[in-house]
Amino acid sequence: MTAGQVAGLIAAIAFLILVFFIGAFLMKMVRTLSEVNKSVKTMTDDMDVISKHAEDILASTNTLLDDVNHKVATIDPVFQAAADLGTSVSELNSATHDLTGKVKSTAKKTATTGLFAKLGESLFNAYRGRKNKD
């Protein structure tokens, strides 16, 4: 064997070892990808189940929300009536306060300038004058 043939044989053996390691690497890669594929399929199935449960929960939530909205709409007039009643009571209170002030001022004016006030003053003066004579 010549040196060229030995070099060729070494190169062929090196190439054979390289092909062997590449083949082993590819076999491990295939097994890994197979496991990844199984994991992805499992995750996809789990996500489908989770998605279905989430869909059911959202449907229940929408039903509950519709029920709450309906009940709130039923109660709204009660709160509006209570607000209107509060406004009416406040207005009645203000009107009563104003009327009381007007009656009070009118009573003072009437007491000092009215016919009965003059009559009362005359009677008082007459009584006092009569008492002074006695």
UniProtKB/TrEMBL annotation:
Keywords: Membrane, Transmembrane, Transmembrane helix. The chain crosses the membrane at residues 6-27. This is Chemotaxis protein. Gene3D superfamilies: Methyl-accepting chemotaxis protein. The lineage of its organism: Bacteria, Bacillati, Bacillota, Bacilli, Lactobacillales. It holds the Pfam family DUF948. The keyword Ligase does not apply.
